[in-house]
Structure formats: structure tokens, C-alpha cells
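call fold(seq) -> C-alpha cells
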Amino acid sequence: MFRNFLIISLRNFLRNKTYTFINISGLAVGIASATLIFLFVYDEVTFDSIHPNNEQLYEIGVSVISKNGNKESFGVVPGGWPLSLKDKFSQIESITRLGAFGFPASIHDKSVDRIVLNQDGEMYWVENNFNDILYFPLVKGNPKKALEQANSMVISETAAQTLFGDGDPINKQLTIRHPFATNGMEIEYMITGVFKDYPTNTFFRPKYLLNLNGLKAAFATQRITYDEFLNGMDLRAGFFQTIMRLNGPADLQSMTREAEKLADFTTRSDSGFYASGRKVIPVIKPMNETHFDEAMQWNFVNDSGSKKAVVTFAGIAILILMIASINYMNLATARSVGRAKEVGIRKTLGSKRIELALQFIQESAMTTLLALLLSIVLVVLLLPSFNFLTGKSFSFYSLLNPVVILAILGLTFFVTLLGGSYPAFYLSGFRPA
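ret:
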């Protein structure tokens, strides 16, 4: 029976080429648009989910309010704050501090006398426990020992290709210089590992990870010691992005009250800052919510998302699919006069209504399947422009994600059912008389 349905469907497609082209191209544009929007929405709602136990991770930042009410927000705090909070709250299982101090650092490979400058968010000074909290896809080196030594560093596959081409970067020496972090001094680091490039839907997208203790040498001539920089609570201390992992439900109110005491101490530590009337307000938030916090720049690269935009785009995708399906439905219904004779003859010869309905639904499924194949081609061709528009980096391999595949198949089923069910039962209901 289905073989017969298939032959009839193919004959109808070939006999009505213009109608078939309009139907397939219309559905293809609708499915392609919905697929691109789904890629964007899925990328946003899964932001930072790559990190293990991400629902247990929290960040702490501050809002600085001036005397006249102006507000600035930063996702960093003095290095001593998280240590003090951990001492007072047993639910804080572990903490890690990340430093990215703005302005490019120079990476000098003296063996070939080559200097590369990094961009914001590409170089982090980290504690050697950071890989216990954050995702760390090391492909060369020992993840437990890669950042064990003070002057050790790991680099991304892209950075390795930029600096060394196809050569092995392990145990190579690089000289790092930064106007603030190293106080303009040159500090030698040894590469102990290479990690896979991080995806774009996470705040943490480094190319260079350096052991924080490697900065000790830069404080030999500073007015503060390295320990004061790392663990201090006044305004002279280093300010770090801090990730806390909790081992149970978060008592954010109690933590925030304790952080307010630390903020008051920090404010009073500088007489000029205190006299200016500025206030420091601490903010503690789950890490998986920081991406959608438009009031605060939590990360060194500001790419906060918008929940309203995500919901709006999802609604637009559904609307596009409905319009494409209704368009198909209208065209199929408009051709009903041309198919009335076919239905009449088949009913006269004994075909049942359910058999005719199944035939028309199969035609709809074939049309949608052909539209799906065409839509995939359109998506691949449009991805570069879509990436430029959204600031993402989707590729053909993004379509191979199991969730994306299921979503595309779901879209196909939805369009088949919505667009094909009404014409199928409408056309199969003709009376031969």
C-alpha cells in the first residue's frame, strides 16, 4: 500500500512542478529559520553548563554606588573576601580565584624572537585548584600536575598552533610581561599542557592559563607583598573573579550579610574612598544565572545575554513554523478541486477514507522531508552571516549535536502534522457523487 502511495506522490510532484517547488522552498525557508533560531536559543540557555556541577557554583561581585547615585558593577572582589567567607560557612566546599587584569600581555618566545599580544579574556592567572571547579579539557599533559609549579602554564590548541605551528609546545619557555600583573617585569613560564579550545557559550574562554603564584617575583619591589595582593581585603589588594562551590543549599542571605561586613571594612580601608561617600554593595549569585544578569558585568568579557530576547526568538521560531505550515495547508486546500476526481475514482473503486488520508499525510511527510534536506543546505550556507550577526561561532558540527538533531526531527514532525493533517482529512472527505 505504501509503495503505491509513494508512486502516486512522486507522480503528483512531477506533474505539478511549480506547486511542488513553492511548497518545498516555503517549508525549507521556515525550517531553516527555525533551526538557526533554535541553535541560538539552545546556546544561550545552556550557557556555562559545560562546567561540572554548575548548579552548585556561585560567584561574588560588587556594585559601587557613588554619592550622587551613579552605579558601577563588577564581577570581582578583593582576594581575601572568599577566604573569610569560606572560614565562616561550612557549606562553601571550595573556592578558586581567577585573575585577568585587562590590557594585553606580551607573550615572547625568545627562541625565535617572536612576540604575540593577547586580547581581553584570553589570559587568566589561576590557582592550581581551578580545574577541580571549572571544566578543563586538557589534551596534552597531566591535569593534576599541569599547574602545580609556580612558573607553569597551559595553552589552548589555537594558541599552540599560533606560536609553534605543528611543533610540540610541551616544556617550551615563554616570557610573559603585563603592565599591571607583572609590574612590567618579564617572567618566565614553562608550558606543561595543551587544552582543547573552550566553546563560546561559557564565560571562561582562555587561550593561556598561568599559575597565579608565578607573579610572586613581580612583588619584590612593590609597596605591598604578594600575600597582601592575593589575600588582602583593602583596596590595595588584588581583585579576582571568584567561583565558590557549595556542598548543599545556599544560604545567600547569611552570606550576603557577612559579605556586607567585608565590604564595609574594604570601604573604610581607604580614607579618600570612604570620604567620597561611595558605598560597596556585595552581590552573590548562582553562576548559571550570571549570563542573563544585564545589571552587572560578571566576566572580563562582557557578553551578557537577555532572557527576554531568548523567549522572543523562541516565539518567533514557532510563529515562522506555523506560517510555513499554514501556507502549505492553504496551497494544498486550494488544489482540492484538481484532486476531487482522483478522490472520487479511488472511493468508487473501494478506497477507504483513512487510506486516502494516509496517502495525503505521506505526501506531506515527503514534502517536509525534501524541505528539511534543502533547509540544512540553507543553514550551512547562512551560518557565517548568522555567526557575524549573533556573535556566535556555530559550524556544521553544531548540527550534529544530539539535542539539535532531535529538535530538527521534532520540527519536521510538527510541520508534517500541522501542515498535512487538515488537507489530508479535508481532501479525503470528498463525496464521489
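The CA atoms of residues 100 and 365 lie 53 Å apart.
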